[in-house]
Amino acid sequence: MTPSARLAAAIDLLAEMDAAPRRPADAVANSFFRERRFIGGGDRRAISALVWDSLRHWRRAAWFIERAGGEPTPRLRIASRQILTGSTPGAISQAFVEGRFAPGALTQNERHTLDRIARADPSEQQPDAVRLEIPDWLFPHLQARFGADLEKELEALGQEATLDLRVNTLRGDRETVRKKLMREGLHAEPTPLSPWGLRLPGRLPVTSSAAFKDGLVEIQDEGSQLVVAMLGATPEMRVLDYCAGAGGKTLAIAMTMQNRGHIIACDVSVPRLDGAVRRLRRAGAHNVERHLLTPGDKWAKRRAKSFDRVLVDAPCTGTGTWRRNPDARVRLEERDLKELTVKQADILDRAAALVRPGGRMVYATCSILDAENRNQIDAFMARNSDFSLVAPDTAEIPERFRDSPILSLSPAKDETDGFFAAVLERKAEPAITEPTITEPAVTPPEADAPPAP
Ligand SMILES: C[S@@+](CC[C@H](N)C(=O)[O-])C[C@H]1O[C@@H](n2cnc3c(N)ncnc32)[C@H](O)[C@@H]1O
């Protein structure tokens, strides 16, 4: 494809994303490329790079365009990014040409807008929320969470993420698998925090490698691996993965249990639970049963207080994954957060009922917002006095996290996605001991005693 054809495709893709504002950008992109199979791998990557750059700089680009009197259309968003990264209006005009596979020439208004952006004072102060690429309403939440580290953390959340893999130790150890990947041209390094993690520098075609197809690795952020380590599931346990989705963490739990014991993977979504089947088979996990949660289901009642470990990987804003999903920054609305916090509290209470006395529940999110994390745990403990926070104390957790019941990871501090996990233990019930009955001393009647009068 010519550079103009790539530009045209990037503009079309951005327009499709605009037309489906509640749909994740990667889902829109997958459909877009599926319908255009003639676009080869190199062109796809170039088009995606243009689009993802635009998504990462959404608010800043819109701010410059609007200040210059324009509308933030997909064409101007792409073109203004080129100006703001050093290109000239003249060079951009040469790429915006007429033709079947080209974006069409810039209109007079577009040219004026781009000229004004090129002349704008780059040091002009933008509002904080614009500069940090977040919705205005979210700014106080993130300021409360990160304080003096806010800029650093949001800067890190704006970068492209590394690609983390989890080695499936049911199929091989980390070093052997690393060497296998290397032979396929994938040069991975061990992750610093997870004992099962391997890290690749960025988007690479891992899913087409033999190592992936043979179930030796799964794509899983290092933070997500540590959440599983916090659960401390061991081979003899009964474990419930309450919000299992397509089984990302279920697979890792099966691995920590060496494919023994029993895991039940629940969810309310049929397609998600169905998505787990192929992955479980590929990983060789045999100790997992799936269960669809439905309203009025007696299933949970019958299993009250019966699980050694319960993982609640709650539905959340996903604010910790913005490195991978920059579009989510723009889509997130205040009402989403309100709805999610209500749902999380309900799920926590339902899942807690399934933990056996002395058993543990791990509540986790990929959110960086206190409302979904710390505040949720404080409120849960106020409602449930028989649970307390306990340190995970498992060997798979790096020492610096081992003594704290709460794990709070962030991209700038830990080079992972933003993750939160809290370990809660249900009080053991006092052991039921047989009451000691003090038998009254019975003096056997003496054999030859005379009968009582
Ligand atoms: C963060 S995702 C889980 C991701 C999954 N654990 C993994 O590691 O791949 C949250 C999941 O919660 C599920 N969910 C939403 N409401 C639920 C509910 N009331 N009870 C159980 N699961 C629910 C969603 O369908 C979604 O799959």
Automatic annotation (TrEMBL):
UniProt family annotation: Belongs to the class I-like SAM-binding methyltransferase superfamily. RsmB/NOP family.
UniProt-annotated catalytic positions:
366 (nucleophile)
Query: Pfam families in the record, alphabetically?
Result: Methyltr_RsmB-F, RsmF-B_ferredox
One Gene Ontology biological process: RNA methylation
**Renumbered residue ranges of the record's region Disordered:** 430-453
* The entry's keywords: Methyltransferase, RNA-binding, S-adenosyl-L-methionine, Transferase
* GO MF term set: RNA binding; RNA methyltransferase activity
Q: What is this protein called?
A: rRNA cytosine-C5-methylase
Q: What residues bind S-adenosyl-L-methionine, as annotated?
A: 267, 313
Provide the coiled-coil residue spans: none
Residue ranges of every copy of the SAM-dependent MTase RsmB/NOP-type domain listed in the record: 153-427
Superkingdom, according to UniProt?
Bacteria
Q: Which PANTHER family match?
A: NOP2 YEAST -RELATED NOL1/NOP2/FMU SUN DOMAIN-CONTAINING, RIBOSOMAL RNA SMALL SUBUNIT METHYLTRANSFERASE B-RELATED
